[in-house]
Design brief:
Chain lengths: ~230, ~280
């Protein structure tokens, strides 16, 4: 297992959002986390990243516990985060955004070739101010920035949010190619069921702060009622 | 003609001196959202470092080099012991740094007494400049200020440290998620800002009486410059030009008291018309 959560509790202030999450993410695989709004998907991402404190339980990554570490330490262990809303540095150039992804890493100040290989547009526009690009391009920048630190694992929170459907398809393809070629482990939170079934090999369903079921994508494709049961579509 | 030239040089001199003092304040506020009320006392410590070095038989130049180092170290200790515990509690940072300012001032009174010192200044000659004679040391101050501005621009826009710092200013938690150690950056930035205050204190010391109250005299115009300009580097340069220009011109032509009145009136009018400062928001780089 690349990432494992064992009975993790977390939340904001005194209110618990995650009430004992147990989840395993296999190395080199795409695992999707599905659930309705407010069930704790983004909270889970932020907790893994160290942005929210783990109140109980253990998060293990690559053979060592990471709960209690600061976000920068977790990032430098090899987990890269593409947050909901992208949070790119709007007033910085594309290149500066990518460089920021390298600063804490052994390749500080050097953007690895794989970033531009997967996202040629970022090379084309590297001198452009990031805030002037389209939503789809900004999402590619956010993923490219995560890859720039040569991570072992990627946390993707709603990569299709606010992006044209045609671009979503393109980004999904690129992500799949990245996962295969770079042997990256990916944990994906996504509302777009098509994208999820397309990319993920395993889907975990979260409800009221707990993982209630885990299924392989094949089973979900074969029986759509399974998805409807958990997402209430 | 001579008068206009001298007025212009004096205004420029004062404006650049304000920038020298304000720079550290702006950097610390921009990165950490801490209004450092003790900045004037760090300035004071820079001047007293020079006094101590000269009393010990060292020269002016040695003092000038040691002042930013000593005060930078003081900044490092203050950050570790006090400031880091009150980050993100805006009002508390004001109270805490105000407390630090009082403690430093009293410590200086205990150590050196309330009386004033003078320091020996180098470069005691005039330079012929476009037909008038202008004190060389004042030109030196202007040179140091310009160097500090260029150094700050270089550090923030041409180095990895600067990129990381700008990243933290723009979005602290995202910068942390990318692997930037914000703790270390805060510490380094506070020390850098403190070192700039120390340098400013040593540079300005020969021009003024070195006493426990000297910090305030420059802190107030520096704050006014930041407020009227709207913060950031360009805003501070603009605000400092306004405050410095008005103050030195009115002081020379009429009286220093009137100059103070006009500066404050200007600040009130500017802040009334532009609550975020002249470049509010746009000058924040």
């Amino acid at each position: 297992m690349m990432l494992s959560l064992d009975e993790v509790e977390s939340g904001y202030g005194s209110s618990l959002v995650l009430k004992g999450v147990t989840l395993n993410v296999a190395a080199g695989q795409v695992t999707a986390l599905l659930g309705r709004n407010g069930m704790g998907k983004s909270t889970l991402m932020k907790t893994i990243m160290g942005l929210l404190p783990v109140k109980r339980g253990v998060i293990g990554f690559d053979g060592a516990p990471i709960n209690g570490l600061r976000p920068d330490q977790i990032s430098n262990r090899g987990i890269a985060f593409v947050p909901q809303g992208r949070e790119i540095f709007m007033e910085f150039t594309v290149e500066e955004n990518l460089l920021l992804g390298t600063l804490g890493k052994p390749n500080a100040g050097w953007i690895p070739d794989l970033v531009f290989a997967h996202f040629p547009i970022l090379h084309e526009r590297r001198k452009q101010i990031a805030g002037t690009m389209s939503g789809g391009q900004q999402q590619q920048l956010a993923i490219g920035r995560a890859l720039a630190g040569q991570p072992k694992m990627l946390l993707l929170d709603e990569p299709s949010e606010g992006i044209q459907p045609s671009i979503v398809e393109q980004i999904a393809q690129t992500l799949r190619a990245i996962a295969e070629k770079e042997k990256l482990t990916i944990l994906l939170v996504e509302q777009n069921v098509e994208m999820v079934l397309d990319m993920a090999s395993t889907c975990a369903f979260i409800e009221n702060g707990r993982i209630v079921a885990t299924h392989g994508s094949e089973a979900l494709r074969a029986d759509e009622r399974l998805i409807h049961r958990y997402l209430g579509l | 003609m001579d008068l206009i030239l001298t007025l212009g040089l004096d205004a420029l001199n004062f404006a650049l001196a304000i920038v020298l003092v304000a720079m550290g304040l702006v950097i610390i506020f921009g990165l950490m959202n801490v209004i450092n009320m003790a900045h004037g006392e760090l300035f004071l410590l820079g001047a007293y470092t020079l006094v101590v070095v000269q009393q010990a038989g060292g020269g002016f130049w040695l003092g000038l080099i040691l002042a930013p180092i000593v005060v930078g170290l003081v900044g490092l200790v203050l950050e570790e012991l006090i400031i880091r515990h009150v980050y993100r509690r805006f009002l508390d940072t004001i109270l805490a740094t105000w407390g630090i300012s009082i403690a430093i001032k009293q410590a200086v009174i205990l150590g050196f007494g309330p009386a004033s010192y003078t320091v020996d200044a180098p470069l005691q000659f005039g330079v012929d400049f476009l037909g008038t004679t202008y004190p060389a040391y004042r030109l030196f101050i202007m040179g140091v200020a310009v160097l500090v501005i260029l150094l700050t621009l270089f550090v923030f826009f041409r180095t990895r440290f600067g990129l990381a710092a700008r990243g933290v200013i723009a979005n602290r938690s995202m910068a942390a998620c990318l692997g930037i150690n914000t703790r270390r950056l805060d510490r380094a930035t506070f020390a850098f800002g403190a070192a700039l205050a120390g340098l400013a204190g040593a540079v300005m010391a020969p021009q003024m009486s070195v006493d426990p109250q000297m910090g305030l005299g420059f802190l107030i115009p520096a704050f006014l410059a930041i407020l009227t300009g709207g913060g950031g580097l360009t805003g501070t340069l603009l605000g400092a030009s306004l405050v410095g220009g008005i103050d030195s011109t009115f002081a020379k032509l009429w009286s220093p008291v009137l100059a103070q009145v006009v500066v404050f009136a200007m600040a009130i009018v500017v802040i009334r018309l532009f609550p975020n400062g002249l470049l509010g928001g746009r000058g924040r780089r």
